[in-house]
Amino acid sequence: MKIKSFSSAIILLIAMFSYVGVYAQQDTQIYDQVDTYAQMPQGKQEISNFIYANLVYPADAVGSGISGMVMTKFIIEIDGTISNIEIYRPLNPLLDAEAIRVVGSIPGTWIPAMIGGQAVRTYFYIPVLFSDPKE
């Protein structure tokens, strides 16, 4: 029951925080205004299910009482791969590292954002919720 509410919360948070930013790296722009936003390969519910099936609360943090959301940020490249995974809103170094690990292991190729029928690089944000198993 608790996992179902986490899944629902994640879906809502993904919808709220799906944001595309502007950034330039090596003469390749990252767009914030696009015709079609990048999409997750399996859909929001499947991504949420994947995250919580593969998320491991770090053993060194168990019993610390640390619970909350880590916001990850990454680039969806024009070929649909993800790169530059980082923490946008940290919670705890151990939990932040686990969020990066699990987001980086999401399978599949993303559908990139499009402008004028051409794929472009964009930012994407995914929240990862943690709950101390001892709480």
Describe this structure in words.
With 135 residues, the protein is an alpha+beta fold. The protein has one domain: Fusion Protein Consisting Of Minor Coat Protein, Glycine Rich Linker, Tola, And A His Tag, Chain: A, Domain 2. It has three helices and seven strands, in the order αββαββαβββ. A three-stranded antiparallel beta sheet has the order 4-3-7. A two-stranded antiparallel sheet has the order 1-2. The chain has a two-stranded antiparallel ribbon with strand order 5-6. The longest helix is centred in the first third of the chain and has 16 residues. The chain is elongated and about 50 Å long. About 13% of the residues have low confidence.
Portion in strands: 25-35%
Please tell me the overall pLDDT: 84
Please write the CATH class name. Alpha Beta
Uncertain residue ranges: 11-27
- Report helical residue fraction: 25-40%
Series of secondary-structure elements, N-terminal to C-terminal? HEEHEEHEEE
CATH topology: Fusion Protein Consisting Of Minor Coat Protein, Glycine Rich Linker, Tola, And A His Tag, Chain: A, Domain 2
Instruction: Name the shape in a single word.
Output: elongated
* Number of E-type strands: 7
The Rg value, from CA coordinates, equals 15 Å
Give the tags:
135 residues, alpha+beta, Fusion Protein Consisting Of Minor Coat Protein, Glycine Rich Linker, Tola, And A His Tag, Chain: A, Domain 2, three-stranded antiparallel sheet, two-stranded antiparallel ribbon, 3 helices, 29% helix, elongated
SSE layout and pairing:
Layout (H helix, E strand, L loop, with lengths): L1 H16 L5 E3 L2 E3 L13 H11 L13 E9 L5 E8 L3 H12 L8 E3 L2 E3 L1 E9 L5
Antiparallel strand pairs: 1-2, 3-4, 3-7, 5-6
Helix pairs in contact: 1-2
